[in-house]
């Protein structure tokens, strides 16, 4: 009977230790799960961080490229504006020449008409004298 009591006490101690060890094991597993979760979160955060860094680098590159394109387009616009201004200046100069020629035209036409009248009178006088060759007027030469 003493041996049975001794075995029962040992068995009870073993059961108590077993429960204690199970409890510690469950606590350890829970802690390990929590740490894995935190570690997993950290890994997920690291992955997301790396992904964001790549996206930011790509966006910086795109922005740099767009800045270059924008500067190029601005240069082209400036050149076009300069060409338009130069063309406008040339056109204004040509308009001034045209206006000057228009102003000089009426007196020249009067001179041509006067010359034609003189030629006509000379022709009449020559034809009375017996010459039948016709002399062309200046205005006929100009109109051709």
Describe how the helices and strands are arranged:
Blueprint: H1 2-128, H2 138-143
What does this entry look like structurally?
This protein has 144 residues and is an all-alpha fold. 92% of the residues lie in helices and 0% in strands. It is rod-shaped, with a radius of gyration of 56 Å. The N and C termini lie far apart (153 Å). 0% of the residues are buried.
- SS element count, helices: 2
Report the biggest beta sheet as strand number plus sense, adding barrel if it closes. Answer: none
DSSP, total strands: 0
The value of Rg in angstroms is 56 Å
> pLDDT average, as an integer?
85
Question: Spans of 5+ residues with little confidence (pLDDT < 50)?
Answer: none
Strand content: under 5%
Please outline what is shown here.
This protein is mostly helical.
Task: From the structure above, extract its key features.
144 residues, 92% helix, mainly alpha, 2 helices
